[in-house]
Specification:
- This protein has 294 residues and is an alpha/beta fold.
- The chain has an eight-stranded parallel β-barrel, surrounded by nine helices.
- The mean pLDDT is 95.
- The structure holds erythose-4-phosphate.
- Erythose-4-phosphate binds next to helix 8.
């Protein structure tokens, strides 16, 4: 059962509908699910097929992704399902948009994930005009979140998520949770049209701290949601009641940023975004073998 004082939406971070079913049974509710190319490549069926040496063709992997997303959507028809476009360093905005329009038609409750890069933001700006719902992924800085806000001005609340990746910042010694705090604080000066989706959650402390900060949404791996349930779904109270220990992680300072510039004016480059795109496209391409004709 959903705890009474839980305002944050809880998503499952997974490419496996079996986990969706189990989490719904465990928690009694689920507000959505996020997928990405790495998670799809870890889906048990994809893994098994890959291990047998039976790679997918490009069309087959898209069909498989569509099936996974359709199965998840049936389990959470009122939730949101994030589907990620394929993008490598050379993918232009037009190509991302083409995929986005197609993927958006797969299920009635899709949010399309674009990387928070120049091409991704260009695609996002147009997608919003066309009425698509989007989730800007691989966000690692406050400036990138400001650019997402600016590129999607005029969108309705619920139409745009931004996903700051905390675990990957922690991995390199920076306190990812301080980025969540900073973006939430910065967005307080805005009109509320972008929701903060805490992503790359690695443990229960990340999850509870994001709850205490009132992150709009948190996407959480299966094992962390299971642990939360096993501990009887504790709630952290407000950020004043809950103390998060970042250990030796370096804090990320807050910057005063004007949200009302055109998005091209922000410095949106971040090396972890580039690395993330590389990793996602590699995981995707590893599943594919191009059938050579004649
Ligand atoms: C979700 O939308 C993200 O793709 C996911 O949380 C990334 O997590 P990772 O950093 O553990 O790969």
């Amino acid at each position: 059962m959903r705890p009474q004082n839980l305002k944050t939406k809880i998503f499952l971070d997974s490419g496996d509908p079996v986990e969706t079913k189990e989490i719904i049974n465990l928690l009694g509710f689920l507000d959505g699910q996020t997928t990405n190319p790495t998670l799809i490549s870890k889906n048990p069926y994809a893994k098994e097929r890959f291990e047998k040496g039976e790679e997918f063709s490009k069309q087959e992997i898209y069909d498989f992704y569509k099936k996974v997303v359709t199965d998840i959507s049936k389990l959470i028809p009122d939730g949101s399902i994030s589907i990620e476009v394929y993008a490598d360093a050379a993918t232009p905005a037009d190509e991302m948009l083409k995929q986005a329009r197609e993927m958006f038609s797969w299920v009635p409750n899709a949010h399309i994930k674009f990387p928070t890069t120049k091409e991704g933001l260009k695609a996002a700006e147009q997608a919003i005009k066309e009425g698509l719902r989007i989730n800007m992924t691989l966000c690692f800085s406050q400036e990138q979140a400001a650019a997402v806000y600016a590129a999607t001005q005029g969108a309705k609340r619920g139409q745009v998520f931004v996903s700051p990746f905390i675990g990957r910042l922690d991995d390199r010694g920076e306190n990812g949770m301080s980025l969540i705090k900073n973006i939430l604080q910065m967005y307080k000066m805005g009109d509320g049209h972008v929701e903060v989706l805490t992503a790359s959650v690695r443990n229960l402390s990340h999850f509870l701290y994001a709850l205490s900060l009132d992150s709009d949404i948190i996407t959480v791996p299966y094992k962390v949601l299971k642990e939360w349930r096993e501990r009887k779904m504790p709630m952290p109270g407000t950020s004043k009641d809950f103390s998060y220990d970042p250990g030796k992680l370096k804090p990320i300072p807050y910057h005063e940023i004007n949200l009302n510039l055109s998005w091209q004016k922000y410095n949106i480059w971040h090396e972890l975004t580039d690395q993330g795109i590389e990793r996602f496209s590699e995981d995707w391409n590893n599943l594919i073998v191009e059938k050579k004709c004649c």
